[in-house]
Write a structure and sequence with these properties.
single chain, D-Maltodextrin-Binding Protein, domain 2, 14 strands, 31% helix, alpha+beta, Fructose-1,6-Bisphosphatase, Chain A, domain 1, 5-stranded mixed sheet, 2 domains
Length: 271
């Protein structure tokens, strides 16, 4: 990777990155059984969240291959011990080897592999692959967002009337209450993979996604760029943008939405 980025130099990474993502999917997919428990070994991390041997295998593979692809990039991943040397680096890979592990282990198809490359703290490349659904989303900063090679955009809805919303019930209840009488929302089943929650807003199949506190950079960064390039944003419920590659990569409550709905959502949330 050259030290000075151009559209061409960044785009040159994408064919190899697509290959890497397909290979990562081929590692995870044999452990996944639709509607049934995974065949992978499962154990609990500190704090009680589950991890499977598929998470670890994909993480190990991606660390090797992505480090070969951009050797000067630092690394931040859900399944790798954090090295704070990343804080002084311009380039950082942000990786979730399996986003939505509980979905993966229970046979729910909404899990993904999420890979983002940051440049000076901002997403430069985002790639979200959903192997069980057979779809892949990608974006390069300034070059648009794509699903399986087709350009995607957020829904052009100008207000919240009839919006399709998803996320934790307490957050949806507050948004609904603040939106006034009979907002006529359609509630979509909660999407286990946060990366998929973001890209579904990006592709226009969801209007507003709510995210409870405690999401990490690796849940968000790759899909954030897809969303930005599709005309949306991830923000706090004060309207602040998500910030990546801090010492503590944990986020508070967030909302995912088309830019046109920023004002209506913040107004409804303030209630």
């Amino acid at each position: 990777m050259p030290q000075t980025f151009t559209e061409e130099s960044v785009a040159d990474l994408m064919p190899e990155l697509r290959t890497v993502m397909r290979e990562a999917a081929s590692i995870a997919h044999p452990f996944f059984r639709p509607e049934r428990q995974t065949t992978a070994r499962i154990w609990s991390k500190a704090g009680g969240s589950p991890v499977t041997e598929a998470d670890v295998a994909v993480d190990t593979f991606l660390k090797i291959r992505l480090s070969e692809l951009v050797p000067q990039a630092a690394w931040l991943s859900e399944e790798t011990a954090d090295d704070h040397a990343r804080l002084g680096r311009d380039l950082v890979w942000i990786v979730d080897p399996i986003d939505g592990t509980r979905a993966f282990l229970s046979g729910h198809r909404d899990w993904s592999i999420a890979v983002g490359l940051l440049w000076q703290g901002e997403p430069l490349i985002g790639f979200v692959h959903a192997p069980a659904l057979g779809v892949a989303y990608e974006a390069i900063r300034g070059q648009g967002a794509f699903r399986d090679g087709e350009r995607i955009r957020v829904d052009g809805k100008p207000n919240l009337r009839g919006a399709r919303i998803t996320g934790p019930k307490p957050m949806l209840d507050r948004l609904t209450k603040g939106a006034g009488p009979e907002p006529d929302f359609t509630r979509i089943d909660r999407i286990p993979s946060l990366a998929l929650r973001l890209v579904r807003v990006a592709e226009g199949s969801v209007d507003v996604g709510m995210i409870s506190s405690d999401a990490r950079d690796w849940d968000l960064a790759a899909a954030d760029l897809v969303l930005r390039e599709a005309g949306g944003e991830v923000m706090s419920l004060r309207g602040d943008p998500a910030i990546y590659n801090r010492a503590d990569p944990v986020h508070g409550e967030l909302v995912v939405l088309p830019r046109a709905l920023r004002g209506p959502v913040l107004e409804a949330w303030a209630g």
